[in-house]
Design brief:
The protein has strands at residues 9-14, 38-44, 65-68, 74-78, 81-87, 91-95. By secondary structure, it is mainly beta. The relative contact order is 0.30.
Amino acid sequence: MKIKPLADHILIEPIKAEEKTKTGILLPDNAEKDKPEQGRVVAVGPGRRLHSGKRALMDVKKGDIVLFTKYGPNDIKVEGKEYLIAKEEDILAILE
């Protein structure tokens, strides 16, 4: 199934946090972990519609690694795979 975001929405594949702490302790799967804050852009909508009827250009593109607000994106599951859908305003930075 192909997902095509609308307006200024972005489909993100979350990058899971490290399973090991800085001191080398392995975290079990049932440990409470923070929501991911970075991910890879899978698809980008065409941009929000301006008052003039034109579309605003999107700053991110497919393949970008982005940082986003922790609780801004919505969690979705498609064909057993987890994704996030965020508005462009939830994207804080592009990692290079």
